Amino acid sequence: MDAAQAPSGPWVYLIPLIAVAMIALRNVRERKLKVERLWVSPVLFLALTALTLAHQPPPGPAMLAVDAAVLGLGALAGWWRGRLTRIAVDPATHALTSKTSPLGMLLILAIFAVRYALRSFGAQTAGALHVSALQITDALMLLAVGIVCTQRLEIALRATRLLSEARAANSQ
């Protein structure tokens, strides 16, 4: 992108800041957790990612390795963020609630900042790295897929286990 086409102005910085603020506000309070709905966003992310990647030429072996590594890093970050999510079971009603820990919130903010910086860096140096901006975008999309899918899986597994334990304790 040359300077004439590069996005500029306050919106370039304001939109990510608004997104971060919305994420932070959403995660500071305890929310009801519906285990039966945790599959929805991973399926949507996977479907949109598959649809996007299907309409592009296949990546070369080096970019495929980068994509796999980025997906793995996303899965690791998602697992860690899922582990940092506090899940509680009401002993009387067996209602589940979840709340992101402050460390989990810092993790997602750090990932967001790194992703934003990498996107800017990648757009400026894509030619020097012998990759296209589209390949960089694909890798960042796979990072998000890894985070969302693994986090939801971790939360679903822990919530199901905690719910089973609460029900077993009540039946004794």
Structure in words:
Strand 2 (85-89) and strand 3 form a beta hairpin. 69% of the residues lie in helices and 7% in strands. The N and C termini lie far apart (66 Å). Helix 1 (11-27) packs antiparallel against helix 4 (102-125) and helix 3 (61-83) packs antiparallel against helix 4. It contains five helices and three strands, in the order H-E-H-H-E-E-H-H. It has helices at 11-27, 40-54, 61-83, 102-125, 133-171; strands at 31-32, 85-89, 96-100. It has a three-stranded antiparallel β-sheet. It has 172 residues and is mainly alpha-helical.
Strand content: 5-15%
Mean pLDDT: 84
**Any idea what the shape is?**
elongated
Structural class comes to: mainly alpha
Uncertain ranges: none
Biggest sheet descriptor = 3 strands, antiparallel
Count the DSSP helices: 5
- Strand order in the sheet with the most strands: 1-3-2
Distance between the termini: 66 Å
Strand-and-helix sequence, N→C? HEHHEEHH
Number of strands: 3
